[in-house]
Design goal:
Radius of gyration: 22 Å
Pfam families: FCD, GntR
InterPro entries: GntR_C, TF_FadR/GntR_C, Tscrpt_reg_HTH_GntR, WH-like_DNA-bd_sf, WH_DNA-bd_sf
Protein name: GntR family transcriptional regulator
Structural class: mainly alpha
Helix content: over 70%
CATH class of the largest domain: Mainly Alpha
Strand content: under 5%
GO molecular function: DNA binding; DNA-binding transcription factor activity
CATH architecture of the largest domain: Up-down Bundle
Number of domains: 2
Keywords: DNA-binding, Transcription, Transcription regulation
Number of helices: 10
Distance between the termini: 78 Å
Oligomer: single chain
Length: 233
């Protein structure tokens, strides 16, 4: 395998491990450990980590190394807001270009999602939920939209892993059947409204706490001030 092919394989391996939540947010990614695991140099690992950092799936900090990214509350909300803009905006093109054969492919993803949910496989269920949304966007035949959404869906998985409760974050497969029915009927506005509502419900299912500053320890502050006052002549 060529150097570029090897780096791509390592990238895909780490990408899947992060997006499918096998590596939790905050997990350290030491270059030496990864280099040994993949049998490559630290230089190769560094290039892969930089690529993942560019996609905001990995954080790299000076003298602290790389870790799986932990989205802030603002970043989490920004991701969902961006998804609403992209997915709702693309739905008219999706409806215009959808065919029975393409919709059947999407229904197959929904069936696999249902099976994963029945098995209690949360990781697989969340992964297939995201895959459904990306595959749906591909019906628009706009590669730029699909590429943008794929990145947003990947970051959504980190949001869910960071803030979600054990049962949150995954779309209900029955809802996915609903949008396919609307698309099959050619109801672009109904599908757009469904997508807007659906994505807001998914966002609400993830526990996003406000990043308010912690309340000051008033007694300690006042005691410190009083002590300084007593020491003054």
């Amino acid at each position: 395998m060529t150097g570029s092919g090897r780096d791509e394989a390592i990238y895909r391996n780490l990408y899947a491990a992060i997006v499918e939540n096998h590596l939790e947010p905050g997990t350290k990614l030491p270059e030496d450990t990864l280099a040994e695991a993949f049998g490559v140099s630290r230089t190769s690992i560094r290039k892969v980590l930089q690529r993942l950092a560019y996609e905001r799936l990995v954080d790299i900090r000076m003298n602290r190394g790389a870790t799986v990214a932990q989205p802030t509350v603002k970043e989490a909300r920004d991701v969902f807001a961006a998804r609403r803009i992209v997915e709702c905006g693309a739905i008219a093109q999706v409806v215009a270009r959808a065919t029975p054969a393409k919709l059947d492919e999407l229904r197959d993803i929904v069936r696999r999602e249902q099976d994963a949910e029945a098995r209690g496989d949360r990781r697989e269920s969340i992964y297939l939920s995201g895959e459904f949304h990306v595959a749906l966007s591909r019906l628009s035949e706009n590669d730029t939209i699909s590429d943008i959404l794929a990145g947003l869906v990947s970051r959504s998985s980190l949001v869910i892993a960071t803030y979600g409760s054990p049962m949150s974050g995954s779309c209900r497969h029955t809802e996915h059947h609903d949008v396919l029915d609307l698309i099959a009927a050619g109801d672009a506005e109904g599908a757009r409204e469904w997508m807007e509502r659906h994505l807001r419900e998914v966002e609400r299912s993830v526990v996003l706490l406000e990043e308010n500053p912690s309340a000051p320890d008033l007694r300690r502050i006042l005691d410190d001030v009083a002590q300084r006052q007593r020491r003054q002549p």
